[in-house]
Design goal:
The complex is a heterodimer of chains A (about 200) and B (about 325).
Chain A lengths: L14 H4 L2 H17 L5 H17 L4 H20 L7 H25 L2 H10 L4 H31 L5 H32 L5
Helix pairs in contact in A: 2-5, 3-5, 4-5, 6-7, 7-8
Chain B lengths: L9 H25 L4 H15 L4 E2 L5 E2 L4 H8 L1 H19 L7 H24 L4 H30 L5 H33 L17 H33 L5 H6 L14 H27 L11
Antiparallel strand pairs in B: 1-2
Helix pairs in contact in B: 1-4, 1-5, 2-4, 3-4, 3-5, 3-6, 4-5, 5-6, 6-7, 6-10, 7-8, 7-10, 8-10
Classes of the chains: A mainly alpha (about 200), B mainly alpha (about 325).
Chain lengths: ~200, ~325
């Protein structure tokens, strides 16, 4: 199976990819925090942020279509949450501001995640004193997410090919038993992983 | 329920992140004392499992579909402290790999879905677990806890949005609670179904290493106690909390307060014919909760035939 749902472009060679992870994380966080406090009168800041992000995206050599598609995929959530603001006085303005702030933050996060390999993110978290247990769990997750998503896809394909049913109740049962099967398989895999880790000298 | 960036004020986001960080620190401390080394990879794989399980779609009417959130399932299978860490790992990967859920909002999302979701799910599960026996008791308790956990997480999310002045509390609180009372029902059914199917393959995995000695407590006093506790909780939740939020809003000088309260398009929850709105809201909350407890009980009866009981491990 192909696994480019994760990390597809995070290892390109570009000036943005070459920047140290902490710098990119700091820049992203600064932009997101600036957006959190932005007011309508700050529209020049929004324009500057947009320009910076477009420049970053262009320099990163990631296909623009890919980045835009990711943005569009997550944009509905933004719009739905933002409609809540329409009930406030001055709703139209608030709605526009929320969508702008949120979209720019989202774009910054998408650029960060697609220019920084997750291994570097983990190293950064470790240096930021995130508990080692959590970092270990994250590292294991990153290692096995491909395996489990594959396993889940296999289970769903097998179910679809032998138990086609339009009855919702029956399909809930069979999807749930797939999930149950997946948990049992993951816990059995965890046993094997533990043995293998110990054999390689791992200490908790 | 993943809040994107831009909707939470800086204070709310930082405050929520601080609470999450403290709870995670405490969970890690506890796990370091109790966790066996072989459970470390299990936590990693369990986090991956929750992530993958969230991708499985359950068809709902009209071509839409829902999916598992998993906090209660993780709490039942691994215990609440490990579940908090597992859910946080899932949220971190969703945020830092898929940009699903904001970066600044990560602390708030962690507070809602990982901390409140797992601790409330795990806590309520343990509380209700005593009412039943064997697998049927487990399934009943897990279904009820799953519903509560989704509802409480949604409430926390609504409170954060209201505190950030993104939406008026009188609108966002009933809206989020109403929608998630239905979503929680789906979560309850999925959690119950998954637990039953795990128990069918590896019964010892269900129960998270808890002692399997079951005292059969009478259902009536236990249920009454629970209803009373929830009545006490329900009143401030549904009724006085918006006022509290407005108080906070005035204190911190947020504008537009008066208009927002006057023009709220949704009427408050209320039981007709009862004078005090506080009492009425509390009663509505208790009625809904008791109804869900009944639904969970039926679910347990439906899914676990009476002959099949959880084998107690020696």
């Amino acid at each position: 199976m192909r696994h480019d749902f994760l990390d597809r472009y995070s290892r390109l060679a570009s000036p943005v990819h070459a920047l140290p992870a902490w710098l990119k994380a700091l820049a992203t966080l600064t932009l997101v925090m600036a957006m959190a406090v932005a007011r309508p009168s700050w529209w020049p800041a929004l324009v500057v942020a947009t320009a910076l992000l477009v420049a970053g995206a262009w320099l990163s050599r990631i296909p623009a279509g890919f980045l835009l598609r990711r943005l569009l995929l997550l944009e509905p959530v933004v719009v739905v949450v933002a409609t809540l603001a329409l009930w406030q006085p001055d709703g139209g303005m608030r709605f526009a501001l929320l969508v702008a702030r949120s979209t720019l933050s989202l774009a910054a996060l998408i650029l960060f995640t697609n220019t920084t390999p997750f291994g570097e993110v983990l190293e950064l978290l470790r240096r930021c004193r995130v508990p080692s247990l959590l970092v270990t769990v994250l590292a294991l997750m990153y290692r096995y997410v491909f395996v489990l998503v594959d396993e889940a896809a296999r289970l769903q394909r097998a179910r679809a090919s032998r138990a086609f049913s339009r009855s919702a109740a029956r399909s809930w049962r069979s999807v749930a038993s797939g999930a149950g099967q997946l948990f049992v398989r993951s816990s059995e895999r965890a046993e094997r992983v533990f043995t293998a880790m110990c054999a390689r000298g791992w200490r908790p | 329920m993943h809040v994107p960036d831009g909707f939470l004020s800086l204070q709310t986001a930082v405050g929520a992140a601080a609470i999450s960080a403290v709870v995670v620190g405490e969970c890690v401390r506890r796990l370091h004392r109790t966790l066996e080394p072989r459970q470390v990879p299990l936590m990693g794989l369990a986090a991956t499992f929750v992530f993958a399980a969230q991708m499985l779609n359950f068809p709902v009417a009209g071509g839409t579909s829902g999916h598992l959130l998993g906090a209660t399932l993780a709490a039942v299978l691994l215990g609440p402290a490990a579940a908090v860490l597992v859910m946080i790992a899932v949220l971190v990967v969703q945020c830092l790999v898929f940009a699903d859920g904001g970066l600044l909002a990560l602390g708030a999302n962690a507070l809602n879905m990982a901390v409140i979701g797992s601790l409330a799910g795990g806590g309520i599960y343990r509380l209700v677990r005593r009412l039943g026996v064997g697998l049927r008791g487990t399934v009943t308790a897990a279904a009820f806890a799953a519903w509560c956990s989704v509802l409480l997480a949604a409430t926390a999310c609504a409170v954060e949005l209201a505190l950030s002045d993104t939406a008026p509390a009188r609108l966002v609180l009933p809206a989020m609670i109403g929608v998630h009372a239905v979503i929680g029902l789906g979560e309850a059914v999925i959690t119950a179904l998954v637990l039953v199917s795990i128990a069918a393959i590896r019964p010892e995995l269900v129960g998270g290493g808890e002692p399997t000695t079951h005292r059969r407590t009478s259902l009536v006093p236990g249920g009454l106690l629970l209803a009373l506790a929830l009545a006490a909780l329900g009143a401030p939740f549904a009724s006085s909390l918006p006022d509290g939020l407005e108080w906070v809003a005035t204190r911190f000088g947020f504008e537009h307060r008066a208009v927002a309260t006057a023009g709220a398009p949704l009427p408050d929850y209320a039981v007709p014919g009862i004078g005090s709105p506080l009492l009425a809201t509390a009663l509505a909350g208790v009625a809904g909760t008791l109804l869900m407890l009944g639904v969970s009980y039926l679910l347990g009866r439906l899914l676990v035939p009476s002959g099949r009981r959880q084998r107690s491990e020696t």
